[in-house]
């Protein structure tokens, strides 16, 4: 249960074509993350799968059955919204019970499922409160609880962590990953945060302007980005790009090298530059060093402290096996 | 208002407004109370001295007192019922995206801009007139006997006129409330399997609770005092004499200021009783 496939799906709002023809397979039990910059159509894609928007053309299949014309409630999918979309006038219990009540599940069964969900999500003590009396993380869990009790074929998450503070976000990330392990249900997760994508996904779908740029496991995307966009989007801090003569020396239009794949030295190296801003994180230090032909200042990661001063002249050498090369169209060359 | 200084400044600046409000409210109230204990007949001897509770007893034992209270409550209740129900329906309708939405919204709100006297006269002469009214023509077109609205169905006619006037107010408040409903909540309910009617009943209607309360409370305040609509249509005849109208008749038609003032005090009491009941029923919606 939970195999979803999209066939030549398109979506236009009036004259604006948001999603050009798109094909995608989501396998049963997979944790798929749609990631991309704001306005890339990832939320729209999720809403198309949910049935909250009609596709302009193409087909959506869920578990082998054409679901293109099926109303949202009948698709067997549950969605967790960015704003949580809890019903403010109902208690937590009633919120979680709502889908069961709509499905006319009998009371004893309802209670059993609610208790189970509340226990799994640490909500037992809050069942009689209203959403307004809960913290952000608790509301998030109620929203997930409301999704769980339906026992859906797949969960859809629409940027569920973007309203939480940083510490809570890390927690909820783990909880959702754990939930995926326990339930073993397909999950589709939309985010603009590549860290969430990298840490949670089995499969990442990188979107830009409605187009799928690349599909793959987090490490595939990290190691072998198909083009410059994916290379720059996946990984933190982002990949450095160099053009001009420096790139030509490697036989490419543009070369890319991640901050963690540059060696820094006071004596000798391939490129020369003066240390600009440095960010000290304790475990790592990030140096921003302007270098000839770099698209931006070069970001370099060093383990621990190197004792480099601002303005000091340093030499940088890329680790050749991690060098990415791109042609004039931005496609990776291997 | 954090510091001592700003609090003092705030008091000074608010003082004129508070003073004005007090004078506006207290002077008429005190005068009403004062006259209600007097025998005061402007055309028949003027101030004839104190009479104690005589006016109060006379007003309440008059055969027209209880019917007038009943009429008042029927009109208030009827108008509230119609405006809230139709207001919710119109608000839901106007919230749908449609062609010419702006113009339709203005048209819906328009009746509120018509003065009560004018709208009542328009209704009386152009719609409800048994000979030349639009309704009479309509009835005749279908071969029916025209209804003599303001004499045969006087109370219903007045409720209809007043409802027409107040429907825009209810619609406007409820429309803004509907617009503030989070779309994601409706979508969540849709995903949860709620049909359109269930979405309305479980999500939209509870969301409107507070707005409905406000509509009911504000309208009640104004509806308890409607006068012009009755004055220009039935003149208080055919069972349309409300408490307000009865007071008017006592003071101006019978030229008995004392008796009318006592009636005014009863009107205050009635308004408070209604207010207490309303707060009991719907007031809890106002708590967050």
UniProtKB/TrEMBL annotation, chain A:
Stored SMART domains: AAA
PROSITE patterns reported for this sequence: ABC_TRANSPORTER_1, ABC_TRANSPORTER_2
GO terms, molecular function: ABC-type maltose transporter activity; ATP binding; ATP hydrolysis activity
Bilayer-crossing regions: none
Keyword terms, alphabetized: ATP-binding, Nucleotide-binding, Transport
Secretion signal, residue range per the UniProt entry: none
A Pfam family annotated for this UniProt entry: ABC_tran
GO cellular component, as recorded: ATP-binding cassette (ABC) transporter complex, substrate-binding subunit-containing; maltose transport complex
Keyword ATP-binding listed: yes
Domain ABC transporter: 4-234
Family: Belongs to the ABC transporter superfamily.
PANTHER family found in the cross-reference section: MALTODEXTRIN IMPORT ATP-BINDING PROTEIN MSMX (PTHR43875), MALTOSE_MALTODEXTRIN IMPORT ATP-BINDING PROTEIN MALK (PTHR43875:SF3)
Protein's name in the database: Sorbitol ABC transporter ATP-binding protein /mannitol ABC transporter ATP-binding protein
Organism of origin: Aliiruegeria haliotis
Automatic annotation (TrEMBL), chain B:
Record-annotated ABC transmembrane type-1 domain positions: 69-278
Membrane topology: Multi-pass membrane protein
GO cellular component: plasma membrane
SUPFAM superfamilies linked to this entry: MetI-like
Listed transmembrane segments: 12-37, 73-94, 106-123, 158-178, 211-238, 258-282
InterPro entries membership: ABC_transporter_permease (IPR051393), MetI-like (IPR000515), MetI-like_sf (IPR035906)
Gene3D superfamilies (UniProt xref): MetI-like (1.10.3720.10)
GO annotation, biological process: transmembrane transport
Subcellular locations according to the entry: Cell membrane
Keyword Ribosomal protein assigned: no
Record's keyword terms, sorted: Cell membrane, Membrane, Transmembrane, Transmembrane helix, Transport
Pfam families, sorted: BPD_transp_1
Main location, first listed in the record: membrane
CDD domains: TM_PBP2 (cd06261)
Cross-referenced PANTHER family: ABC TRANSPORTER PERMEASE PROTEIN
Family per record: Belongs to the binding-protein-dependent transport system permease family.
Protein name: Sorbitol ABC transporter membrane protein /mannitol ABC transporter membrane protein
